[in-house]
Amino acid sequence: MASPAAAAGLAVPFWRSAGMTYITYSNICARLVRNCLKEPHRSEALAREKVHFTVSKWGEGKPNKPTLRSDGAEA
Fold first, then answer.
1. Distance between terminal CA atoms of the chain?
2. Alpha-carbon span 59 to 65, nearest angstrom
3. Element of type H or E holding 58
4. What percentage of the chain has pLDDT greater than the value 70?
5. How far apart, in whole angstroms, are the C-alpha atoms of residue 28 and residue 21?
6. Total Cβ atoms within 10 A of residue 58
């Protein structure tokens, strides 16, 4: 049986009440799990954490030269 707070729509996930988005909460949890692993699994998981992407700015209706960017955990 649902509590009265949940029935009224007042039940908020703890990550939301802490002012986080679900993506932020998920990233924190994933980082904690990766840091708890033993070697060599830890270094493999940390290597997978890195993200590479390209950004293209548009001008006059055409994409300019794309720029490669990296985002990941700092060692």
1. 48
2. 10
3. strand 58-59
4. 81
5. 11
6. 8
